[in-house]
Amino acid sequence: MGDAAERAGRLRGLIAHHNVAYHGLDSPEISDAEFDQLVAELKALEAAHPDLAVTPPAVGAPPSTAFSEVRHNVAMMSLDNAFTPAELVAWGERLDRLASGASALTLVCELKIDGVAVSLRYEDGRLVRAATRGNGLVGEDVTSNVSTVAAIPQALTPVEGVVPSLLEVRGELYMRRSAFAQLNAERVAAGLPIFANPRNSAAGSLRQKDPAVTASRELHYWAYHLAEVEGLPGLTSHLQTLEYLRRAGLPVNGEIVGVGGLEEATNFCKRWEERRHDLDYEIDGVVIKVDDLAVRSQLGATSHHPRWAIAYKFAPEERNTVLTDIMVSIGKSGKATPFAVLEPVVVSGSTVRLASLHNEAQVRLKDLRPGDTVVVHKAGEVIPEVVGPVLALRPPGLAPWCFPTSCPSCAAPLTRGCGEADTFCTNLECPAQRVQRIAHFASRGAMDIEGLGESRVALLTSLGLLGDVGDIYTLPASRETLPTLDGWGPVSVDNLLRAIEASKAAPLDRLLVGLSIRHLGGSGATVLARAFGSLEALMAASEAELSMLEGIGPKIAASVAGFFGLERNREVIAKLRASGVDPMSPMSPATPVVAQTLTGCSVVVTGTLEGWSREAAEAEIVARGGRSPGSVSARTTAVIAGEGPGAAKLAAAERYGVPVLDEEGFARLLETGEIRGPR
Ligand code: IVH
């Protein structure tokens, strides 16, 4: 009991501290998920020891002194959380106990927007006050700043000639991902610290002393709750209320749906947990609400949460961990890339130990120092990324990190060209580069030699069996030695040797990719293979001839010509040819199978098309001479949007005035190269 009391006291202290850091100072020290864990632990302790329960600490923070205080007429409550479908079921059972059958009534599912809660008060249709939540009872008056947000109407639109005498609506002020990225880019250019995420940048933009600064930030708002209303009779359900708010001119999110019970609501949660990245704004869960306002009154609220709503929180995508070290890896072209060594942490379902830091400028910009506690998230759900340090937790005296001056593999000096972002080890004999080059040659995108991954290449290189890519084809001579190596059996050696043999006839463009020629990617290699048809013809081409080809810029041309001009590379190629490497010649460019309708065009595909898989659609574009990159820019020719398109891509298309085509438009574009019927 003593231990429980002590732990409960400690938890309350921690919760109060992190509340102030998050709500009051816009400078969270732990992730939302970790905060939720503290609250859940305290709740469980109090449930097990009811005599420990005291009035829970108010969520939120006392108002700061920068803005005047606003006492909320109706408290701005937070929501109870559910982290699993089972917890949603438990919530449904509670509903049914208090109002029989309530969980089978219409429930409204809404996205849980990750922004800042703001209450808007309209008197006789005019916006008279905007306030933050603060501690739920007393917030901050942010009227001047909120008045600069274009999405928030200064006056309500009369609906059927009626304007309510009083209306207080609650909603979330947020920043779109695209605006957040743009703002951070501007801050980088101005040498200012960047915001860690759109929520922080929305909060920071709102809490400005000068409303002109708020006005310069692109903020948006979704209204989701009517707290008070006078002079507007007849609203009996939440869906009806939202429809009214929309007609009155307030922005209401378009993804809100009414469902026929908890099962459908759970499906909505699962669907959006998978699709959350398709939106141009961040969400951290789904809010499920009872639709019927009379049933809501019957259910009432606890001291903190309405019983008629619950927030289903998605699995955390951001976690804190310790950055134990920053190291540098050497790539196939000698590029030195810093990477973070982290105390292992589970993010979005997998353990993260390492994360690329891209280049020195990124490390400096984020001011990452070994020993820092850092925020880690998964960019696009897959790639782990270090967002930034938690400065409040930085141990005193932590030294800034300095980029090494020599290669960690061969100790040769690292160099960076004037005005370049990347640093290189220029020693071609560098063992780390050699391993990367050989492993790249064998990789799926190049010669596709299964069973020759980085660790095996490293082993064979260290044993002196591989010195360059040409040596791969001498490995059959070591048929007797290989099975004796640790972890290699006769079957895997046989498979490897078979894969090596098969690769001798790989297409020319894949061989070119495999040679690790700087700046030459897959599409450039395809152009070269089509234009020259053989290695020998390509090697005989001059830089000027190369740069005349569509899709081969001067940088690539110089790099390719430079590569084949080096005696060392010509030797490796001779070795490959002598071992029987005879790349398949692609079809002659003079007789393309399909008309080159998209030469010079860049076409982005998003969402699911009925008639093509994503890969097939992209292959069709490339086959017609076009490119199909993964993102939309001002140079994009068209965006093809299938079912469930990426919102960020559509937003970018709108911003740059790029036409968006449906599947029919795509078929026409492939056939004729014409853009018609933009949606
Ligand atoms: S309803 C009384 N709906 O999540 C009901 N909240 O703790 C008021 N939030 O403080 C909240 N999206 O800042 C509601 N669609 C949504 C929401 C939402 C985001 C935030 C809000 C609230 C917190 C829950």
Description:
This protein is α+β, with helices and mostly antiparallel strands. Helices cover 35% and strands 19% of the residues. Helix 1 packs antiparallel against helix 2 (32-48) and helix 15 (508-514) packs across helix 16. Mean pLDDT is 89; it is low at 55-63.
Number of strands: 21
Strand content: 15-25%
Helical run tally? 23
- Radius of gyration (CA) equals 30 Å
Could you tell me which ligands this complex binds, including any ions or cofactors? 2-(butylsulfanyl)adenosine
Q: Fraction of residues in helices?
A: 25-40%
Mean pLDDT: 89
Largest sheet: 7 strands, antiparallel
Principal-axis shape: globular
Topology:
Blueprint: H1 2-24, H2 32-48, E1 69-71, E2 81-82, H3 85-98, E3 107-113, E4 116-123, E5 126-132, E6 138-140, H4 143-146, E7 166-175, H5 177-189, H6 198-206, H7 211-216, E8 219-230, H8 238-247, E9 257-259, H9 262-275, E10 283-290, H10 293-299, E11 309-313, E12 318-330, E13 335-347, E14 350-356, H11 360-366, E15 373-379, E16 383-389, E17 414-415, E18 423-425, H12 431-442, H13 454-462, H14 490-503, H15 508-514, H16 522-532, H17 535-539, H18 543-547, H19 554-565, H20 567-578, E19 603-606, H21 614-623, E20 638-641, H22 647-656, E21 660-661, H23 663-672
Parallel strand pairs: 2-11, 19-20, 20-21
Antiparallel strand pairs: 1-6, 3-9, 3-10, 4-5, 4-7, 7-8, 10-11, 12-13, 12-15, 13-14, 13-18, 15-16, 17-18
Helix pairs in contact: 1-2, 12-13, 15-16
The structure holds 2-(butylsulfanyl)adenosine (IVH).
2-(butylsulfanyl)adenosine is lined by residues 77-79, 110, 112-113, 117, 170, 172, 224-225, 287, 306, 309, 311.
